[in-house]
Amino acid sequence: MAKTKNKKGALSDRYHIKNEPKKLNSFEVHVNKEKLKVIGKKQKNDRGLPGISRARAIQKRKSTLLEEYKVQNKNNVFLDRRIGEKINMDSESKAIARFTALKMKSHSKRSIFNLADDTILTHKGQTLSEIEKFDDPKSDDDFSDDENQSGKLDTNFVGEAHFGGGILKNTGKEGAMTHKDLINQLIFESKKRKAEKQKAKEATLELTEKLDLDWKDLIPLVTKDGKNEEIRKPKVDDYDKIMRELKFEKRGTVSDRLKTEEEIAKEEMESLEILEQERIKRMNKQDTEDTSKLKHRSADDLDDDFIYDYDNDDEENMLSYNKEGEPNLQIQANVNGTVVKSTVNALAEEVQDEEENQETYKDVSSEEELETDSEDNLSDLKISDNESEEENCNIIEEIPVENDTPIRTPKQASLKIETVNNNKESSEKEIEHVEIPFTFKLPDTYKGLLNILEKYDGHQHLVIERMIKCNHPSLSEQNKDKLGLLFAYLLQYLNDLFSDDLQKDDLKKHFNIFQLLVPQIYSLAQLNNQNAHNSMLEVIKEKYEDYKKKHKTHPGLEVLIFFKLVSVLFPTSDFRHQVVTPCYTFMEMILTKCRVNNRKEISYGLFISSLILEYTALSKRYLPAVINYLSGLLHMMIPKIGVKLLKIPPPFKPTSTLLVLLNNYSLESFNSLKLNFADFSEEEITSEYQVRALYSVIKILQQFLEHYIILPSHVEIFEKATYFLEKIPLNNYPREVQNNANCLVEELRKSKIERRLQYLVLEASKPKALRLYEPKIQVVYDGKSHKSQSKEKAHINKLLHKVKREKKGALREIRRDNAFLGRFKIGKQLQSDKERKEKVKRIYSEAAMQQSELNEIDRKKKRKN
């Protein structure tokens, strides 16, 4: 008897085998080995399953890449967007879901009977809010019940025309009205009644409006006892008053946009062109009208027909003179709104007094220097003779002129004064007016610019200003280079003005020209900064090369002008500047190397000292050469009597006594103790110059002390100057000079007493750390060279490494995708070839069968025959 198997046990064994996890084949597991093992380090990719991963990748490509490849270059895809088609739902669930969506869509519309909605209800084209304004709307009650007045059809007419009447009714009367005539008569009467009703309504409305306007006049009639009592208005609350003021307060409006630099330059050029055209027009008009309007006058013509119109304020005030040649207009006379300040003779005397008294000069300095110390700063250049020229122009400016008459320049005004003084002569001489055009072209050569400036002498700044406006860089691209060339020409022009030995009057004139040209030169430098830097640097280099040939002789005055121009154009407070720093070195060499033997050379050094003071006003930079130079000048003011001589560094000599004051000027007063223009042209040292030299040195030292007071070593810096100043016999100098010298010495002594010096000590060393029992960490080298770089650079390199790695991974995936598509294409081609071969075989077999059947038929036919 055979042994039966336990079926239950077999089923249980199969169940456990099914639920057990699948064991991995050790041959399918790939182990990634590492060169260095680190204890405790978790590795994510230490083991891999290449087969399983490859199968997953292939399955993913089949569901994504392969599907995209199949639908590639195909259109007109039918998409079923019905509810439930993309989700596995039964037919009943789909129907319920579609019915629910349809109901929700229908209920989303607003009901016209739902008053809670935002629907605006209207009546006869007007909203309810407009109707509730009580503007006397029409209603059914306005119409009368009478049918004849309401405009409706009459009852008799309706009965006759619509119910049994009309054309079928036999009236028995001749001339009865037809149905059409009845209708026309009814329409006419209806329109007539409506017109009368409208006219009555308009009359009622007009009376009502008139009554509303005149209701104030009827108030006294309805008040008690007929008294005219005003209606008391309630007092306005302060809050309501402020609220109304704020409500009706003027509000700000949007202003016009600011104009750009190009638009401003274009407008300035257009205005100058218009003024130039008007000037040319006036010039041509004057020539033609003077000849055309000439009128013959006899010898006994006494101008009897001349009538002076006193009421016309636009006419010119005519100047008249007495027998002695003096004008009849009084001083401070008010004529037609203009005040005449002085007569011509008094004006000429004031001009002469101004020219004799004003001898001092001031340097062209910045606005900050003028605001801080305009009286004591030696570097303030200002030509005082301009005041006389401005006064000369007053007599012309005070006379009102017509709009077509050009304004005369100061030079023309002086010529006018000469003709007034020569009025005693019987014949009058014509004066040529020098008019300045409003538009200029940029000269191509330096000679052309020089001719233009010489033609309009005294107005060079106005010519240059109009050149810049008419040729602004915003108007043309080529103007920037041309203006840069104009900047170089102006530097050459300044060099020619101050290169020769000039007298006092010429120096005044040339310094005045320089002062007026500085704003235009500054504008040119702002338009082309690079050109200004290069041009000024080349000029400084050229002057330095010329100076090195004779380093003990002071360079010309043009070098001082360029030093001053550098302080205006470039920042002097920078630690290092490509133009200012060489100027520092150049000025220090002049103060250290050049001889000091006459008045001109001493004034030159004082001017450079004032420029250094201006250069270091903000940076407070210490230059030992200038303090040494000022101390040397003080040494030259000390009488050398004893055998022991005071030591002084070069270029000063220990025995020099050029500035020793021998005469007593303690009781004399000076108009001005500042240096003047004559100090740059004369070499003889006078007693007056010795007083002014000491005053200037003390003033410059005081300002340097204000700059260097913050330095701990300021006492040592001014120690030698203080020592020499104490040895100068101040009794011979004026009171003002003595007071300034004593104040300087007292300030230096006080600062020396109050100064507290700190002793030098060694820097505190870092305390040595205690020995701790910590593990000694050794650096493990992986054989790679790591560069020492910053945190930002390391982060950038890390990101670049990640990009490189991702790029490699992307390329790898692309190669795999191409290989997958290639395999699919080959498989598809093999499948199509296989199908084609099978079709060919089937066709051949069918053809063979047909041929065999034909052969069989042929054989049967042959047998019968």
How would you describe the overall organization of this protein?
The two termini are 76 Å apart. This protein has 29 helices and six strands. The longest helix is centred in the last third of the chain and has 74 residues, at 791-864. It is mainly α and 865 residues long. Helices cover 54% and strands 2% of the residues. It has helices at residues 7-19, 50-63, 65-70, 91-107, 128-131, 147-150, 155-162, 179-213, 215-222, 238-247, 261-292, 344-357, 367-372, 386-397, 410-421, 446-455, 460-470, 479-498, 504-527, 529-549, 557-569, 580-593, 599-615, 624-636, 687-708, 714-717, 719-727, 735-754, 791-864; strands at residues 30-31, 47-48, 122-123, 126-127, 333-335, 338-340. α18 (479-498) packs parallel to α20 (529-549) and α23 packs parallel to α25. Among the domains are: 335-422, no CATH class; 436-594, Serine Threonine Protein Phosphatase 5, Tetratricopeptide repeat (Alpha Horseshoe), CATH 1.25.40; 619-754, no CATH class. A two-stranded antiparallel ribbon has the order 1-2. InterPro entries: Nop14. Residues 366-378 have a biased composition (Acidic residues). It is found in: Nucleus, Nucleolus. Pfam families: Nop14. Belongs to the NOP14 family.
